[in-house]
Amino acid sequence: MDHAxxxxxxxxxxxxxxxxxxxxxxxxxxxxVTAVEFLxxxxxxxxxxxxxxxxxxxxxxxxxxxxxxxxxxYEVKVLFWSILIxxxxxxxxxxxxxxxxxxxxxxxx
Amino acid sequence: xxxxxxxxxxxxxxxxxxSPMGVSYGKLMMWFFLLSDAFTFSALxxxxxxxxxxxxxxxxxxDAFTFSQAYWPIPEKVFEAVPFLHxxxxxxxxxxxxxxxxxMSSVTMVLAVEAGHRMDRKAVExxxxxxxxxxxxxxxxxxxxxxxxxxGAETGKAVAEGxxxxxxxxxxxxxxxxxxxxxxxxxxxxxxxxxxxxVCLNFLIYYNTVMGTYDRRGHYEMVEKVGLYxxxxxxxxxxxxxxxxxx
Lengths: 109, 247
Known about the structure:
The structure holds two protein chains of two kinds. By secondary structure, chain A is an all-alpha fold. Chain A has two domains: 15-74; 83-109. Chain A has helices at residues 17-43, 48-69, 77-84, 88-108. Chain B is built from eight helices and two strands. Helix content of chain B is 65%, strand content 2%. The mean pLDDT of chain B is 88. Chain B is elongated and about 85 Å long. Chain B is mainly alpha-helical.
């Protein structure tokens, strides 16, 4: 594999210990939140509250993945909002479709 | 007014020559591709919500749950098997393992990106290999999960002429309404295909790294771009896990 170095001078920097530690912390948080989700799945009764908690925890996990792993938190504000603002359409879609589903359910009875 | 404006034309950062978003063209386009892909997956999951809420929900006690065509099944009663432990009831444990595998492969990917920033080819190779391994492990788990779902559990579904139907296909399934299996195949299948594409891309990046392509180019930005895609695949699984398996 040494053929690559023959004509290229590469300056390898030492590992950034602090950054790597932070990444593992984020991984631990993601694992812990998943564990909490498991706990809730088998200890709580089914209902709107349980669903709301699951959605909340999912958004926590999503923001860690997008913010830290995908580095979006540290990007320029224009890019940050260009990605986040269009996603509000999903909320509209969600509300409209679930509402529709409940109506369909009522009509079938 | 006009003359002063002509003397010193106000230049916006959008007039060209700089990157207002602070990222390269390729990375920006990856972000917008992922945004559009997020809409695709949202549409699938929201439609799942629509169809599920338009079916009857199971009303009785969770312990007394049986499969029926009359209502939507409780996911933890469907996905409760683990490989090599036949007959053991372990609800959602296998899916939990799959979630853990994908999160870990996301971590190794971000470590590969970190190594790329430092131009450390050996470290990039190491972490890319772990990421590829994680992706393959996830795909293998999904293959088992599909196999189990298709072949079915102990108790089948009684169909006409006194026969019993085991497992699932796109027309029938023993777990609940036909739509349930259709959504399972489509949503996890579409995600699984993303994982498969991701593994192929990761392998391409690994190959280029080994060949010294990025050393010659002077930067490892391709690792970052494919890394974005790989994290997105993990992100989608987080949502699939919640909305298909937990809720």
